[in-house]
Known about the structure:
By secondary structure, this protein is α+β, with helices and mostly antiparallel strands. The protein folds into four domains: 1-49 and 244-373, no CATH class; 56-202, no CATH class; 385-447 and 610-749, no CATH class; 459-595, Barwin-like endoglucanases. Strands 1, 2, 3, 4, 5, 6, 7, 8, 9 and 10 form a ten-stranded mixed β-sheet that branches. Helix 13 runs antiparallel to helix 18 (613-646), helix 13 crosses helix 20 (661-698) and helix 20 packs antiparallel against helix 21 (711-737). The chain is elongated and about 100 Å long.
Amino acid sequence: MVRKTFRDLRKNWISFLSVFLMSFICLFIFTGIFHLSQQMDVTGKEFVKESQLADTVLSVSRFDGDKEQQTNKLENITQVAKRSIGQYQTDKYSLTLLSFDHSSISRPQVVQGAKLSNRSGIWLDEDFFQARDYQLGDAFVIEQESYKILGTVRQPEFIYHTGSDDQPLPNHKKSGYAYVSQEIFEQLPLYPVHQLLLKTDSNNTPWLEKELASIWQDDYGQLTETQKHAGLSIFFDRVTQVRRLAFLFSSLFLLLTVITMEATMRRFVKQQQVQIAGLKALGFRRRTLLVHYLSFSMIVTFLGASFGCMLGPKLLSPALIAAIGNQFSVPAWLSVESSVGYWAVALVVLLSMLITLLPIGALSGKLPAKILQSQTTQRYKRSWLEKTKLWAYLPFSLQWTLRDIQRNRRRAVLGIFGAMGCMLLLIAAFGIKDSIHFSLDSVFRDTYHYEEKVTFKTALPSDERNAVVQNIDSGYQWLEQQTITVLKDSEEQSTTALVLSAGNELKLPETNLQHFTENQIGLSEALAKKLQVQIGDTLYIKLQQQMFPVFIKKIVPVSSPQGLFFSQTTWKNLQQPFQPQSLLLREKDQLTDMPMIASTSEKRQQFKDSQKLIEGILMIVSLLILAALALGITIMLNCHLLIFSERFIEFSTLKVLGFKQREVLALSFLETSLLTLVGWLLGLPSGWLFLKAYVAMVSTDQQQYLPHITFQSLMIASLVLLVCMLLVQTYLTIRIKRIDFATALKPSE
C-alpha cells in the first residue's frame, strides 16, 4: 500500500499540487506575519527592560526637595528620579531636549561615543544623528550656543517619535531628541516641564494619583503611565494589529485549504472507485483503506505546511521588517523562536485528514458490488425549478446546467467558494490602499481647510492672541490640545481634548461646535465605539484633579483628529482657561519673524508625509494579490476538475448522441460562468465586511481609516477573477477535447 500511495501521488501530482500550495500559503502567511509580531513584541519589551523604564511619570511645575522625599516614602514607590524636558524648534527640525540625573531609571542606551556624564556637551538621538550626517565631536548649536556632540543614544519612550501630531510618520531628519546634563539644561532658553520618574511595585494608579496630588498640591501637573506614552503605545498597538492580521488571513486561508482538500480528495476517490472495490474484494479491511487514503492528505498538507512554516519567518518576516521596521527606533530586531508554527502545522494536517474522511469514510464501508455500481443507476427527483412554468422557456443548455447544480449542491458550493474567496482577497488588497487614500483625502480636503498651522513655544493668553491676530488678513482659528482622562464605568482612558475657537479652518463633518451649549461636546466615532457610548450619554472627564460631566451632543465621523471636541465656550463653562498653542491660518506666510513661534507646518507637506503610509503597505497589497490569484486558480480548478470527473460520462454521451464539440464546451463554460458569477456576487458583500475588519485592525488611536473601495478597483478585481475563470475553463476545454469515448462509456456498459 505504501508503494501504491507514492505511485498515485506521482500520477496525480497536478491535483495534489493545489493542496500543497494552499497549505503552503496558509502557513507561510501565518508564520511570517505572526513571527513578525513576536519579533516586535520581544524587541520592544527587551528594550524597555534594559533601560529600566519608569512605571509612571509625574509632571510638576517645579522641583521641591521636601516633596520629593515625601513622594519617595510612599508605600508603592520603590525608586524616584527626576528630569526636565523641553522643546527646541527651528525651521529645519524639532528637537526634544531632556536632562538626566545619573539614575538607573529610564536611562537611555548609549550607542556611540562617551557615557552620560556632566561634561559640557550633548548626546543626540542616534537616528537623528545619522539622518543629518553629524559626526562625533561636531558642534551642535542651540540659540547661538555651541555644544559638542559627545555621543548618540536610544530611549524606548521615543521608539516611535514623530515630534508633533502634525507629523504622521517618524521623519528622523526633521525630529529627534537629545540628552544634556541638568546644569546645561537650566541654561537653555526653553519652556521646561519638570518630571519625576517613578518605579512602583504595584499598579494602583488612582490611589497613587490621589496621594501625589495631596503632596504636590498646586505644583501637581499630571500622572501618566509610561506604557501609555505615545511612542510606546503606538508600537505595542502595532504588535497587536500585526498579530490580529496573522490570525485573520490565516483563518481565511485555512478554511480555503480545507475546501481545496475536500474537493481534491472527493475527485481522487471518485477516480479510484474501481480500485477501492477491488481492494475490498481482495480482503483489505476498512481500516487499511482509511489509513491509505488519509495518508494522501497527511503527506501533502504536512509537506506544504512544513515548507510554509520554515520559509515564512525566513522570507516574509524580513521583507515586512524591511517595509515597516524603519518606522521604529530600536537597537536591533531580536530573533525569536516559537512553537506556534509547529502547532499550526499539526492543526492543518489534522483538519485535512478529518475532511478526507467525508468522501472515503462512507465508500469504504460499502460492499465491493455496491462500490462498482454505476452512477447511471442513480435516480433523481425533479427539482422545484423543473416544476415551474418558467422551466419550459429556458434553453436546453441552461436547463441542463441548473439541473446539475441542484442535484450536486455540495459541488456547486465548492465552485462558488473558490470565486468568492478570490474576490474577497482582491477587494481586501485593492480596498486597503483605497481606504487609506480616501481617509487622507477626507482629512485634508474636507476637515482641514487651513493652509498653514503655526505652533507657539508656549500657550498664549488672551492679550498675546489679540496682538498676533492684528497681523492676520484672512480667516483663522485657534486650537488648544490637551491630554485628558475620560472616566467610563470606573475605567479611565487617556485621550486628546481639542478646544476650538470660532472658525472653519478645522471643520468637523456634520458638526458645528459653536452651536453647542453648556457642557455639550463632540466625540470622534472611533473613540465612541471604543468607549461604547452614543449620542445622549454622559461622560466624566478629569481636569485639574476635578471631575466634570460632559454631554455627548454629536458623534463625529472623522478619520483624524481623534478625541473629544470642545468649543471655546464649552471649555470656559468647565472653568478652564482657553490657552491655545496653535493657530490655523487660511493663507500661509502671514506670521513671520515672531520670536514666540516654535514652528510652522504647511498642509500640503503634511499631506505628502501622510501619503508615505501607502509605501509601507505595498508589500502586503502585493502579497494579497498574489495569494488571491493562487487561491482563485487553485480552488476553481479543483472544483471544476471535480465537476469534470463526475460528468465525464455525460460529456461523452452527449458527443455520442450527436452534440457538436462546441455545444459540449458551451455547456461546460456555462456552468463555470454561472458558479463564478454567484461567487462574484457573494464576494462583493463578504469582501466589504472583510475589508472593514482589515481596516479596523490597521487603524490606530491617532488615525482611524475609513473603509472604501473605488469603482475602478472593483472593476480590476472583477477582471482578475474573470481571467482566473478563463484560465480554468481553458484547461477544462483541453480535457474535454481529449475524452476517449470507449474508455469513458465502459463503466456504464
